[in-house]
């Protein structure tokens, strides 16, 4: 027999059928090695005509896989995991002809690994999965096992690339959590490290597993040791550097990530992911000019098209992701037209990639495009056929403050996931419909508002019971969104001038979860404060601050004015919070008024200086930046602000000379003011590229002239 399909499985009844269905008709035999399933895995395998090999699990993946290979009756085998499946229809005749005419013992296949549910959340790599089992090729290693020829030691089997593609979704975060894969893998890796303590491949895989367990700091320790011991030619070394850099970025260690990548980008010049991450780390350090160059190099590497054969590659790293990074750099340099073109190009490459659509919409709005025109442009790119596509466009429009344009899309995209329900509610609030937003949020929590379809008898008891049951369901599923939903619901109640819903109170009450208890206490205390029955001293300051910040982000300005009165720190920092949320005019009024009665804090001086700089009052702004430096403002931003003011003042002083020089070119010895103006312009561009100015979203920019009532 020519070809066998081999699958290793344990309690995989939810995915095994999909796997085996994808290979139907291709093979002469199917072998499923079962390592102790207690569900319907074996029965499903037999239903697809598979021969089931029962193998005792010995904490050794190689031993389990080799048990299946030892039972093979075919010349070739194609190895899959139960959570993998063939990604495209494969013709039986084409595959068998490939194997019959092969002059090699093995073929690599492309594996697409999905790590999230959004467009582009995929990494791909190539691995040997199709090989001649009759040549004695077997697996080696208790975990992350490798294929080796008999007697060849640690040298892994390699082969030509064939056209087969496997899709894999077994490392989606929810799957990892539900099946405990990361905990199992860490235990096996620790076991392997007991035998080989300095093995860099084990150390690298330990770092990956710790990342999956949301422990980036511990992961960086493992990655650093792997980096120390790994040979320069080790095939996993590039992805080790990539993953270490991602972990450093997760820890906000932008300098560490940039330093690591700076050492390695030349060695891996054709690896777009490395250049993309280098650009990201530089952007986070406000080194925009350097980041721009890194993104351009990532695009060049992507265009070369050779990365897939050597590296683990993230979808879009050498195309639309890098193009979005380059667009962000151009926007930071004040080149809005270029940024818009780049975002549009990225959206054409990946029509459903959220960051490309969001950047494109924001640049269109900054250029003065009408909301309905932006909506039409998004629809032409994405389409309106699927509810997910409609919700994506609604999120983008809501993100730029185009609430009226977004609402019809949200209403057409039902039903919504909780995260989308929160975004829909934010649009409703922005459009002045806080009451409707409250109902949407309660629905996301699984609770009907009290005035929606109450039964005649026992209605209130029914709603309360429903709230408690839904709360237990959400908490047991470890969903991360319930605190935000509860806070937004409370804010909508207060925005309408009402007390907390009894349904929300019931949802919050009686939980054993400490986070739930703290949130309940804070919301009830704030509810009492707004009603005039509780002192602000009873409210936890951190949660009160979160409520105020969220109210301002949602545009609930009258409510925010009340919330700030719950604490002295909130009241004193209110003007700064207004500014950071885009209320520039309102913040300026409060800060100027405060200057008459007290010394402004360093951060307030900086905010006011930035406001005056935006109004081209450079002398006044310079004075404020200098004062901010004296009072302890973040030195880098304040110094850049002062430098921008000084350069702008110099430019203003030179402009009359340059105008006169243009009229009488000989008067100033050949036009030296123009040369100085060019140099000042270049310096200003570099200063602005440092990212010292507060970045406002498109939605926040719309609030610049809102007055405090």
From TrEMBL:
Keywords: Glycosyltransferase, Transferase. The keyword Hydrolase does not apply. Residues 6-125 form the Glycosyltransferase 2-like domain. The keyword Disulfide bond does not apply. Its EC number is 2.4.-.-. InterPro entries: Glyco_trans_2-like, Nucleotide-diphossugar_trans, TPR-like_helical_dom_sf. PANTHER family: GLYCOSYLTRANSFERASE, POLY-BETA-1,6-N-ACETYL-D-GLUCOSAMINE SYNTHASE. This is Glycosyltransferase. It comes from Paenibacillus lignilyticus.
């Amino acid at each position: 027999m020519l070809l066998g399909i081999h699958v290793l499985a344990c309690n995989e009844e939810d995915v095994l059928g999909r796997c085996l269905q994808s290979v139907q008709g291709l093979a002469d035999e199917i072998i499923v090695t079962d390592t102790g399933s207690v569900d319907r895995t074996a029965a499903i395998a037999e239903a697809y005509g598979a021969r089931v090999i029962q193998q005792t699990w010995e904490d050794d993946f190689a031993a389990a896989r080799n048990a299946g290979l030892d039972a093979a009756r075919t010349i070739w085998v194609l190895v899959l995991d139960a959570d993998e499946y063939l990604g495209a229809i494969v013709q039986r005749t084409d595959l068998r002809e490939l194997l019959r005419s092969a002059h090699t013992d093995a073929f690599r296949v492309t594996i697409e690994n999905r790590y999230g549910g959004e467009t582009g959340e995929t990494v791909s790599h190539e691995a040997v999965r199709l090989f001649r089992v009759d040549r004695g090729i077997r697996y080696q290693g208790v975990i992350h096992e490798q294929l080796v020829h008999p007697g060849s030691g640690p040298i892994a089997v390699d082969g030509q690339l064939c056209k087969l593609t496997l899709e894999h979704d077994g490392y989606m975060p929810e799957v990892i959590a539900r099946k405990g894969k990361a905990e199992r893998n860490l235990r096996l890796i620790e076991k392997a490290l007991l035998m080989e303590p300095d093995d860099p491949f084990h150390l690298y895989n330990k770092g990956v597993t710790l990342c999956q367990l949301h422990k980036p700091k511990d992961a960086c320790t493992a990655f650093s040791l792997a980096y120390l011991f790994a040979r320069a030619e080790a095939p996993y070394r590039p992805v080790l550097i990539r993953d270490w850099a991602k972990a450093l970025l997760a820890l906000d260690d932008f300098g560490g990530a940039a330093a690591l990548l700076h050492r390695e980008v030349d060695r891996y010049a054709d690896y777009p992911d490395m250049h993309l991450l280098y650009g990201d780390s530089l952007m986070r350090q406000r080194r925009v000019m350097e980041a721009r160059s890194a993104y351009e190099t990532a695009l060049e590497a992507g265009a070369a098209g050779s990365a897939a054969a050597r590296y683990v590659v993230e979808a879009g790293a050498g195309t639309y992701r890098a193009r979005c990074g380059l667009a962000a750099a151009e926007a930071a340099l004040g080149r809005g037209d270029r940024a818009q073109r780049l975002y549009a190009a990225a959206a054409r490459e990946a029509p459903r990639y959220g960051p490309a659509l969001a950047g494109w919409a924001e640049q269109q709005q900054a250029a003065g495009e009408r909301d309905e025109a932006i909506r039409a442009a998004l629809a032409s790119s994405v389409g309106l056929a699927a509810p997910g596509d409609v919700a994506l466009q609604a999120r983008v429009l809501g993100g730029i403050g185009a609430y009226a344009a977004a609402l019809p899309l949200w209403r057409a995209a039902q039903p919504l996931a909780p995260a989308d329900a929160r975004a829909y509610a934010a649009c409703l609030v922005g459009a002045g419909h806080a009451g409707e937003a409250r109902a949407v949020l309660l629905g996301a929590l699984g609770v009907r508002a009290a005035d929606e379809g109450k039964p005649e008898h026992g209605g209130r008891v029914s709603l309360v019971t429903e709230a408690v049951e839904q709360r237990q369901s959400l908490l047991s599923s470890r969903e991360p969104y319930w605190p935000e939903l509860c806070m937004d619901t409370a804010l909508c109640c207060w925005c309408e001038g009402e007390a907390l819903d009894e349904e929300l109170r019931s949802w919050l009450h009686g939980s054993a979860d400490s986070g739930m208890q703290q949130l309940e206490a804070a919301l009830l205390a704030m509810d009492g404060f707004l009603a005039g029955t509780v002192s602000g001293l009873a409210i936890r300051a951190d949660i009160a601050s979160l409520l105020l910040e969220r109210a301002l982000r949602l545009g609930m300005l009258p409510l925010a004015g009340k919330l700030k009165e719950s604490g002295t720190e909130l009241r004193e920092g209110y003007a700064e919070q207004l500014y950071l949320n885009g209320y520039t005019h309102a913040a300026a009024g409060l800060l100027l008024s405060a200057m008459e009665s007290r010394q402004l804090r360093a951060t307030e001086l900086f905010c006011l200086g930035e406001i005056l700089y935006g109004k081209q009052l450079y002398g006044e702004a310079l004075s404020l930046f200098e004062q901010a430096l004296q009072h302890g403002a973040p030195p880098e931003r304040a110094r850049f602000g002062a430098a921008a003011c000084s350069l702008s003042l110099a430019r203003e002083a030179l402009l009359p000379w340059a105008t006169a020089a243009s009229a009488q070119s000989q008067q100033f010895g050949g036009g030296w003011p123009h040369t100085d103006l060019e140099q000042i312009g270049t310096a200003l561009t570099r200063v602005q590229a440092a990212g010292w100015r507060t970045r406002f979203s498109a939605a926040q920019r719309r609030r610049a002239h809102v007055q405090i009532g």
